[in-house]
Every structure is written in structure tokens, then in C-alpha cells.
Amino acid sequence: MAKYAVPRGTKDILPDETALWQRLESACRRVFGLYNYGEIRTPIFEATDLFARSIGVSSDIVSKEMYEFKDRKGRSLTLRPEATAPVVRAALENNLIGPDKLTKLYYIGPMFRYERPQAGRQRQFHQAGVEVFGSADPLVDAEIILLNLQLFQELGLNDLSVNLNSVGCSVCRPDYRQKLKEYFHDKVKKMCADCLNRYETNTLRILDCKEAGCQAALEGAPAAVASLCPECLAHFQAAIKTLDYQQVNFVVNKRLVRGLDYYTRTTFEIIAPSLGAQNAISGGGRYDGLVETLGGKPTPAAGFAVGMERVITLMTNDAVPAGQTARMGRQECLMTNEGDIILYLVTLGEEAKKLGFDQLVKLRKKGISAEIDYLGRSLKAQLKTADRLGVKYVYIIGEAELKQGQGILKKMATAEQKEIKFDSLEEEIKL
């Protein structure tokens, strides 16, 4: 009788492991909900062209790693190698993205890439991630990084670091590509075959090479941040300033480009050095041109994906025991709800938004789900959004409130409102 084995590059998740997976999935749902992201589930396979157009024909994923097959009518389909393009497709097809609208989505599920199986890299792997559409505000970049870190903090994961970079936009990236071309012109002949091909098709991809023999050549390569246009530089500096203020431990990694061609401006990875060579446990950034590439109107967007297998490996070694509370610096992460938004911070003006974002971060660290406007809308429009979300409270901060050191807290059910000092907000909404 024939004996069957699990396909190479895949693994069975057995009953003694599923509790750990359920714990990770539950933490993702709680923290994503805390930040007002709603779950979306897309098919496991899509039209092949969706990935070719979004990820890039010259990328390793499209050129080497996709599981492509023909259906009975000869149509080319592909098991999803990543989730961002399917989420964009679904959001466009179902009218989830629109003008003057912020859309926040998250997903959890399996992805598929034909890679050489090794520790931390399988052919069927799992990702959890978020996508946010509609705002070009650098605070969104900061939010998704803070969200990512809060998820890991709740799981009790330690000794992580954030690598940060900006890869620019369609205005400044051509100049950067030309500088890379000039730098690698005399070096690429001694580099690997992949780098030689990337030199001709997409020079930026050379920076993503992991071959030991290419590392010396990469060290002296020009930095993307040195070629940023004024708008991209201002955006990157604003994101860094916010992360600095929130005491995020990060380094600017000039070689960080990620493996997908759709990224623009901010890119980041969260690294766990204890994992060895495959040490990135999550990564993401901005992809402001992808919605338009896939047939929508120009729409800024950002997101990240967590490599769940690598996180499970860390949880096995580092996580706090089930039932205990993970520590977040000097604060405890106490989840008080399952994602229903308690408070909407209505801010008027840039200074008010900065203070409101700081309040937002503090509340979320305490497990209080809150949201803020990233679109610069009017008071009326923000209150309308708060009403649509069904929040219990709104907290209004404008120019007068900044001068007085207190905002206006309004209880939506009764329209009762009172002035509350900024440092008393948390206590007041817990009453």
C-alpha cells in the first residue's frame, strides 16, 4: 500500500501546536480591532495577471516562485503569494475605497511561494496583515508600525528592532535607479546571476540580494534617502519624528527595499536577531500607486504583513505563559474590548492632530480602542464619521482647547458634554 507524506515545503499543524496558533490569531484580531481594522477574506487563488501587475514581472516572486496553473477553460490562475494585491482587488470590486474615505482592513491566512524550504521559509506559509487606504499622512506610517509593535508586545516577544527606509516615489526614484546603475556597472559582473539579471530589469532589487558573495558590493551602494525629492524627504522626516516621540527603537537601513515592486516612500521590517538569517518577522510600508495600477483612482495606501511561522517560533521560546499579561515597557497591555471603537478623537489643525495622535497611542496601549481623522476633514465630517462608527464618546481638540489644556468630551448617546483635561481623558472614559 502506498505511503503518502506531506508535500515538501509544507507542514501539518498538529493538536499540540494549534493552541499556540489560536493564541497568535486571537491576539491579531484583538489588536487589529483595537486600531479599527475590519477583517477581509479573499480567495486563495486569483488571476495571475493581478500579481504580475502589482508585484512586478521582474521580481523573484513573479519570475520564479508563483504557483501558477490553468483552469479547464485555459485561464491562468495563481495561488496567492501575498495578500495586498487581492485585498486591493476586493476593495475596488466591492467599492470599499472611495474619495474622502479612510478604509482599514486586515487578513489572516495561508500564502504560497515555490522557494527552497529552510528554517523560517516554507512553500505554504501564513501571514496576518493590515492595509489602510485613503490617507497620505505620515502619521499613518507611524500608526502601522506602532500597531505591529503592540501586537508583538502583547505576545511577550522581546529583543526586536525596527529597520526603516524610504524608497521614494515616481519623481525621485528614476534618479536613484540611475545612481545604482552607475555604482554597480563595474561590480555586477562579479556578483550572482540574479544580481546580473536585476541590473538589467530592476536595479533596485540588487539591494535585496542575500548572497554572501554580493554583500561587500552592496555595502557601498548609494542610499535611497540621499536621492529623495523634497516631498518624500519631508514625509520620511515626519514619520521618523513621530516614531522618535513615541520612543520607538529604530534604525534607518539604507539597503532596505523589500521584495515587492509596488512599495513607495516608507518601508520597514521588524527584526528578531535570534532567528538567524531569516530574521524578519514582519514588514511593510507605503504603496501609494498600487490602487491606480490595479484600475482604481489614485489612492494613498500603506500596510504590513506578519510572518506567522516565524512569530510562532519566537513565541515558543519567548512568549509569556497563557493567561498572564505581557509587559509593554512600564505599562501592562490590558485588552478591555474586542475592537468596538470607544472613542473618536476629533482634531482641528495640525497641532491638535499631533496631540490627538499622542492621546490615541496612549489609549491603545491601555487596550482602549480609539480612532482619529487622517484626512484633514471638517468638524462636521469627523462627527459624522464618529456617528457611523457607533463610538461611545468623541473628544474634540481645537485651537481653543489647546490653549486651555483640555478638550470637550461628548457622550454620543445623550449629547452630554464636558471639558476634560488631556491627562484625565483615560480615567474619564473608563468611568
Describe, in short, the structure shown.
This protein is α+β, with helices and mostly antiparallel strands and 431 residues long. It has helices at residues 15-34, 48-55, 60-65, 84-93, 138-154, 173-184, 193-201, 215-219, 230-245, 290-293, 308-318, 350-365, 379-389, 399-404, 425-430; strands at residues 38-39, 45-47, 67-70, 76-79, 103-112, 124-133, 161-166, 250-252, 264-271, 280-286, 301-307, 327-328, 331-332, 343-347, 370-372, 393-397, 406-411, 417-421.
Written account of the structure:
With 431 residues, the protein is an alpha+beta fold. The protein has two domains: 15-156 and 258-324, BirA Bifunctional Protein, domain 2, CATH 3.30.930; 336-430, Rossmann fold (3-Layer(aba) Sandwich), CATH 3.40.50.800. 36% of the residues lie in helices and 21% in strands. The protein has helices at residues 15-34, 48-55, 60-65, 84-93, 138-154, 173-184, 193-201, 215-219, 230-245, 290-293, 308-318, 350-365, 379-389, 399-404, 425-430; strands spanning 38-39, 45-47, 67-70, 76-79, 103-112, 124-133, 161-166, 250-252, 264-271, 280-286, 301-307, 327-328, 331-332, 343-347, 370-372, 393-397, 406-411, 417-421. Strand 9 (264-271) and strand 10 (280-286) form a beta hairpin. Helix 1 (15-34) packs antiparallel against helix 5 (138-154). The radius of gyration is 22 Å and the shape is globular. The protein starts with 14 loop residues before the first helix and ends with a helix.
